[in-house]
Inverse folding.
């Protein structure tokens, strides 16, 4: 673990044994504790969060980095720990739909989607209620808010024990690959956050689908754990495409969807049918790309071409291939149906020029 300074809990706030006037900076490394997800750990999570601390925990999609959504200072610390541009708003996680209804206005489409997919890997972007107790910094000053009700038992236990909304972006440094195990979180954020709750590998392995219901037809802002077709089936209508964003000055409708994101350090080559000898192969399906026997390393997302299994393996395989010392990661084509849309979206972003 990184060299740690002692950390005191004082009048509900953390003080990091630092020079006076230095409290707001993130320069002092923390001791990041890792605890197994049992009842004692859950109680400790609630204490740390109420004190303004940062706790990573598993959800059914990826590990999230939680902070008290109503505490602007905690949210500022969270942005600093991730190295995240503060214009990129966060998802508020709540225990159930009735808690969500206190934070936002639900139209008929939002009600249908919440009834069909909550708890689960769907995030709804809705008009913020007035007054909304979530810190303005967490919503980056927008008049909308992203809400999610996770189904993972540990996430549910934490939300119920905390008794409030938690903002929780994926628990990785900004721009890195999302974490699907506690070890991934530790590698990225060790020394920068207070606590990691280890609940084993996440089931889905890819982030939630984000749908905006802001008047007019609902729009797909990010493909994810709930396939587009399932959402369109419930709505009995096609989803609108997300407005294109990511350029300076653009209205931040889905501001996190920067073109380059989810990136390994090694360059990524897509739709590869022939691997070069010094490349690592991210395979899919029973038949490997030509030249696979000479690849630096081969990992298969799903030998049986199962897209659910491929989503669950995506980020951990990218991380593992990133350490192979290869000149590039060569990714075989993935079919675009069902969860394939979200997998291809993440691969495109990981391959985008930085
Ligand atoms: O599966 C998930 O959603 C995970 C787990 C931990 O819950 N969380 C996650 O959060 O992926 P994050 O912060 O990595 O991605 C949230 C996305 C960002 O692209 C952000 O721009 C978008 O949600 N977002 C948040 N609030 C928004 C809003 N009001 N309008 C549009 N997009 C919003
Ligand atoms: Mg993220």
């Amino acid at each position: 673990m990184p060299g740690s300074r002692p950390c005191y809990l004082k009048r509900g706030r953390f003080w990091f044994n630092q020079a006076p006037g230095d409290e707001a900076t993130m320069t002092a490394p923390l001791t990041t504790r890792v605890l197994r997800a049992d009842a004692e750990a859950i109680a400790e999570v609630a204490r740390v969060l109420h004190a303004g601390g940062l706790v990573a925990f598993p959800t059914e999609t990826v590990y999230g980095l939680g902070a008290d959504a109503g505490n602007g200072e905690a949210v500022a610390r969270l942005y600093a720990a991730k190295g995240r541009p503060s214009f990129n708003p966060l998802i508020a996680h709540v225990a159930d739909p009735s808690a969500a209804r206190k934070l936002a206005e639900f139209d008929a489409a939002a009600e249908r989607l919440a009834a069909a997919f909550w708890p689960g890997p769907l995030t709804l972007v809705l008009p913020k209620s007035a007054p909304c107790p979530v810190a303005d910094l967490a919503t980056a000053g927008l008049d909308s808010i992203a809400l999610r009700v996770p189904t993972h038992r540990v996430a549910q236990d934490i939300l119920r024990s905390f008794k409030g909304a938690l903002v929780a972006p994926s628990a990785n440094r900004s721009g890195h690959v999302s974490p699907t195990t506690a070890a991934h979180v530790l590698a990225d954020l060790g020394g920068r956050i207070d606590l990691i709750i280890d609940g084993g590998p996440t089931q889905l392995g890819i982030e939630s689908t984000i749908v905006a219901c802001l008047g007019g037809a609902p729009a797909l802002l990010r493909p994810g754990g709930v396939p587009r077709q399932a959402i369109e089936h419930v709505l009995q209508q096609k989803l609108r495409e997300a407005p294109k964003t990511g350029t300076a000055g653009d209205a931040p409708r889905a501001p996190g969807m920067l073109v380059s994101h989810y990136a390994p350090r090694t360059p990524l080559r897509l739709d590869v049918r022939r691997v070069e000898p010094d490349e690592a192969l991210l395979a899919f399906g029973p038949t490997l790309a030509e030249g696979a026997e000479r690849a630096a390393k081969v990992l298969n997302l799903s030998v049986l071409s199962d897209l659910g299994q491929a989503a669950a393996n995506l980020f951990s395989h990218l991380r593992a291939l990133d350490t192979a010392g290869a000149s590039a990661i060569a990714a075989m084509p993935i079919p675009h149906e069902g969860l394939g849309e979200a997998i291809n979206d993440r691969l495109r972003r990981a391959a985008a020029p930085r």
Remarks:
- The chain has nine helices and 17 strands.
- The pocket of threonylcarbamoyladenylate (ligand 1) is lined by residues 59, 61-62, 64, 88-91, 123, 125, 139, 142, 144-146, 148, 168-170, 207-208, 210, 221-222, 253-257 (CB under 6 Å).
- Residues 233 and 239 are 10 Å apart (CA to CA).
